[in-house]
Amino acid sequence: MLGPVRIDPVTVSKAVLNLTGVVAYDVPSAHQTIVADVRLPRIALAAVVGFALAAAGTVMQGFFRNPLADPSIIGVSTGAAAGAVAAIAFPTVVPFSSVHVPAFIGAVGTAFLVYAIATEGGRTPVATLLLAGVAIQAFLGALISYMLVHSGENLREAVVWMMGHLHRSSWSDVTFALPVTILGVSVLCAYTREMNVLLLGEEDAHHLGVDVERTKLLLLAVASIVTAAGVAVAGVIGFVGLIVPHILRLIVGPDHRILLPTSALAGASFLVAADTIARLDSLAFPFGLEVGTPIVPVGIVTAVLGAPFFLYLLTKREVHEL
C-alpha cells in the first residue's frame, strides 16, 4: 500500500489475487503493475535477504562465540562489494551483464581465501581466521576506493549499491537468491546440534564426538554462501545479521535448534519493515527532494535503527560473551 503512489488495501488485495489466475478483478492497470511488478518483488527480496543475513549472523555469532560477530566479519560483504563495484565501474572489462554474479563470486572467493590463509596443518584457529578477515577487508577496502575514484559517471550507482538497496528489485533477483538461501539455511539447521556443542569449546566438542574442523569448514562455507546470495542482490546491508540474532538470543535462549529458524524469520520481517520505511516519501521531504526519489537505501535505515538499539543493549550490559 505504501510508497510514492498510495494504493488502498482492497485494491492491493484484488491485484494480488489476480496473480493466482483463479479470479480476475477489475484493477487499474497502473496499480496492478505497481503491486505485481514493483512492490511484491521488492517485499519478497527483502524477506529473502533478511532471512539469509539473520541466519548467517546467528551462525557467525555461534562460530566465533561473540555476539558482535556478523556475516561480514571475515570479509564476505567486502568481497561482494569489490566484485559489484568492479562490474559497475568497469562494465567493459568485467564480462558480466549483471552485478549479481561478480558480487557472488567476490563474496565466496573472499571467504575461502580467508579460510585458506588461516588454515595451517589441518587446523583453523578462530583468532587467526578473524585477523585474516580483517587484513583482507582492509586490502579490498583500498581496492574498492581506487575503483570508486576511477568509476566516473558510474560513481553514484556504485555508492548506492554499497549502501544496500532494494529499489530496483525484480523477480529475477528473488529467483537468484531464494534457492541458495533455502538450501543453505536448511543445511545450517541440520547442524544446529553441532553448533550447540561448539559453544562448549573446541576441545570439549571433540570429546563429545564432533568433527570440529570439518564442522567449522562446513558452517563457515555455507554461512558465507548464504550471505553472498543476499549481498549479491541487495548490496551491503548492515545490522540485520548483528542485531536480530542477538535480540532473539535474549528472547528464546542460545539453543540453535530454536534460535536459528526464529532469527531467520525475524530477520526477514525486520528487513521488510525497514524497506517499507525506506520507500516512504516523507523521508525525502526534509531535504526538498523530488517525490518518488529512491534516495534512502535500506542499508541506511537498518543502520539508523540498529546502531542506537545496539548501544542501548551495551549500556544495559546485555552483550555478553557466548
TrEMBL record:
Main localization of the protein described in the UniProt heading: membrane
Q: Which UniProt keywords apply?
A: Cell membrane, Membrane, Transmembrane, Transmembrane helix, Transport
Which SUPFAM superfamilies does its entry note? ABC transporter involved in vitamin B12 uptake, BtuC
GO MF annotations, alphabetized = transmembrane transporter activity
UniProt-recorded name of the protein = Cobalamin import system permease protein BtuC
Quaternary form? The complex is composed of two ATP-binding proteins (BtuD), two transmembrane proteins (BtuC) and a solute-binding protein (BtuF).
Query: Lyase as a keyword?
Result: no
- State its role: Required for corrinoid utilization. Probably part of the ABC transporter complex BtuCDF involved in cobalamin (vitamin B12) import. Probably involved in the translocation of the substrate across the membrane.
Membrane topology value: Multi-pass membrane protein
Membrane-spanning residues: 43-64, 73-93, 99-117, 129-149, 169-191, 217-244, 295-314
Stretch forming the signal peptide? none
